[in-house]
Design a protein that fits this description.
With about 140 residues, this protein is of the alpha+beta class. About 40% of the residues lie in helices and about 15% in strands. It has 8 helices and 4 strands. α3 packs across α4. It binds adenosine-3',5'-cyclic-monophosphate. Adenosine-3',5'-cyclic-monophosphate binds next to loops. Belongs to the NDK family.
Length: about 140
């Protein structure tokens, strides 16, 4: 297997009809879609997804927003997909994102920045195995 990244189109991206454009960008780059699911995240799942931001002032809004409607959760595969996927996505603040990136082309609001991309392979693995965090085999599991 090549590197994997978790990429999610958030409720604003879905509502604005950007699913096909976003998928096309990743496909044309040469990445392979290996998993896709449409779901409305529960508040609990949204909180787990954003656990690293728990305690920050924007956390409650973030969790409410993510669970406000359907999202498209995807796993993309390919060389450097974590890092380059984030290059394609752009900066957290769409107004700091270059034109040509997803957020640079379609957004103006940090809280509604269309899409989420995993920031590391380890983060993806750690999130996937969150229920085992703290167990002795956890570090090995995540670094596998
Ligand atoms: P994302 O890349 O999904 O990761 C965390 C999200 O929190 C981020 O995109 C933004 O949508 C959201 N967010 C809202 N307010 C802020 C803020 N002040 N700083 C960083 N992220 C924020």
């Amino acid at each position: 297997r090549e590197e994997l990244s978790f990429i999610m189109i958030k409720p604003d991206g879905v509502q604005r009809g950007l699913i096909s454009d976003i998928i096309a960008r990743f496909e044309r780059k040469g990445y392979k879609l290996v998993g896709i699911k449409v779901l409305v995240p529960t508040q609990a799942l949204a909180a787990k997804h954003y656990a690293e931001h728990d305690g920050k002032p924007f956390f409650p809004k973030l969790v409410n927003f993510l669970s406000s409607g359907p999202v498209v959760a995807m796993v993309w595969e390919g060389k450097s997909v974590v890092k380059y996927g984030r290059t394609m996505i752009g900066a957290t603040n769409p107004l700091a994102s270059s034109p040509g990136t997803i957020r640079g082309d379609y957004g103006i609001d940090t809280g509604r920045n269309i899409i989420h991309g995993s920031d590391s392979v380890e983060a993806l693995a750690a999130k996937h195995y969150a229920e085992h965090d703290g167990k002795p085999f956890f570090p090995k599991l995540v670094n596998f």
